[in-house]
Write a structure and sequence with these properties.
The chain is of the alpha+beta class. The protein has a single domain, classed as CBS-domain (Roll). The strands form 2 sheets. Strands 1-2-3 form a 3-stranded mixed beta sheet. A two-stranded antiparallel sheet has the order 4-5. Strand 1, helix 2 and strand 2 form a beta-alpha-beta unit. The two termini are 28 Å apart.
């Protein structure tokens, strides 16, 4: 199973913010969409970074009540770990584990084509295990 297959079923829409967006605005976007991270798009829709719930918690710990005046660019992750559509679930799990990240932008020849999360991976793995269990039951029962 590849990232491309997961994107086909979940969709490739990506929610993003600008580097100049307020941190509190990003928190609202995350809450409204029930997601854990958004991509940060710079000039010309160029991928500039990612900001996650964890980044916002770190920002709160550093800034406290001054967080309201902080911008995304102050706390976003600029060094991105990305993947390609042809990457396998096992490769993605390894990337996420090694990089200690939960969200990966998906780039096809350098162009953003989606984002995949650990939740997407877990959902797909559960579906695979359930399918395999059903197949085994059918095989055993003849």
């Amino acid at each position: 199973m590849s990232v491309a297959h997961i994107l086909q079923s979940k969709g490739s829409d990506v929610i993003s913010v600008s580097p100049s967006a307020a941190i509190l605005e990003v928190a609202e976007v995350l809450a409204d969409h029930k997601i854990g991270a958004v991509l940060v798009m710079g000039d010309g829709d160029k991928l500039a970074g990612i900001i996650s719930e964890r980044d916002i918690v770190r920002a709160l710990a550093q800034k406290g009540s001054q967080l309201a005046s902080s911008k995304v660019s102050d706390f976003m992750t600029r060094e991105l770990i990305t993947c390609a559509p042809e990457a396998t679930i096992d490769q993605i799990m390894s990337l996420m584990t090694q990089g200690r990240v939960r969200h990966l932008p998906v780039l096809d020849k350098g162009k953003l084509c989606g984002m995949i999360s650990i939740g997407d991976i877990v959902k797909r793995r559960i579906a695979e295990v359930e399918f395999e269990a059903e197949e085994m039951k059918r095989y055993i029962s003849g």
